[in-house]
Design brief:
The chain is built from 16 helices and 11 strands. By secondary structure, it is α/β, with parallel strands linked by helices. The protein folds into 2 domains: 10-231 and 352-380, Alpha-Beta Barrel (TIM Barrel), CATH 3.20.20.70; 244-339, no CATH class. The protein starts with 21 loop residues before the first helix and ends in an 11-residue tail after the last helix. Bound molecules: flavin mononucleotide. Flavin mononucleotide (FMN) binds at residues 39-42, 45, 68, 70, 96, 98, 124-125, 145, 166, 169-172, 199-202, 219-223, 339-341, 343.
Amino acid sequence: MTADATPVHPEETPAPFPRLDRAAIEALVRAGQRLLVQGGMGIHASDGLAGKVARHRGARLVGVGTISAVLKTPEQLRGEIRRARAEAPGGFVGVNLMAAINKDDFEALARVSIEEKVSFLVQGAGISREIVRWCREGGVPFCGIVSSGRLAAMYEKWGADFVVAEGAEAGGHIGDIGHPLPTLVDEVIAATSLPVIAAGGVDAADVSRFLAAGAAGVQMATRFLACSDGDVHPAFKQMHLAKREDDVVIITSCVKGMKARAVRNAFTERLARGEAVPPRSKLWWFGKDGYRGRRGSCIQCLGEGLCKARASGFKESFCITDALLEAAVHGDTEAGLFYTGQSITRIGERDASDLPRAAEILTDLEQRLADEARPSDAGSQARPAAVGAAA
Ligand SMILES: Cc1cc2nc3c(=O)[nH]c(=O)nc-3n(C[C@H](O)[C@H](O)[C@H](O)COP(=O)(O)O)c2cc1C
């Protein structure tokens, strides 16, 4: 990030969000509260959710919203951050930034997040040490997403404030397909003294179990795709209803050939047959200026050498930007790629008109925790969360 970076609209920069650093999380845990983090979802899938989740402050759960920076212009990201701040004054709102995206976008979007002093910055899909430094210099807490205890220990050494342990049941790209969440959480808690958030396939019925295992909170993403007041296309919500195990597939993504979980449809069947799906123009979504001025059909959204489609001259794999935009923004159920988590099969509503608001998901979880704790309130918190518990 260039040293002379100046805010785009300095006069409009309002008061900062509260910091979600290690000390703040440890204080909440000591007070008997845990975090319910809404996972950031790229390519506009989680737009509109962060402020609605961050408004929740219950006796047992504190809502934390995450905005995805991926494939936003700096102006779009700034707008989404300010929207969340207006919806949840004083709430915890962070930004998810994938290290796998191209360097210029990565720097520009990190800069906006730091200027806006979001509650935390979380890094998924790739590892950049630079961003930990930028966060430290900018006074923004940093969180790493980890798929092993070794990675958690590394992030602790680098100065992270907390980690999200993301198991194989997660939606979208999967760090380690062989590492289910229950064993991963134990491994990560043993490897670090940082607060640990459990993510991947978590459903309402699982929350107390991961908290009892010592997690400082849980992260859910898939459940929030199927709520009535997120911005994602209505067809994306519909694709999340009444699904069974055989509606969920693991694909090989163009991003470094990582595995990813998605809803089975005509697009995933094409991939299963080994068809290549090269990029086409993005102008239909980004308007007359194109994507930040680039009008070519491949917008080079990923970092150097990370896109399998581009590396093969578009003869293999597929364009992830097209496929995910078709799903989240266009709602094309045939040509879109609908990322999802394993908990999709546990979404109870069968009709889109029955979907709860994001706030209702939080109040239901809060109520459920209270009900589960009632028989022996002391027993439910028997094992203290991983505050200072490890290493
Ligand atoms: C549609 C979709 C898009 C996602 N995009 C991202 C992303 O851009 N960056 C990231 O770190 N995680 C991403 N994830 C992972 C989620 O943030 C979350 O950690 C994970 O899915 C586990 O929660 P879940 O099992 O409740 O979905 C995505 C998940 C889904 C379903």
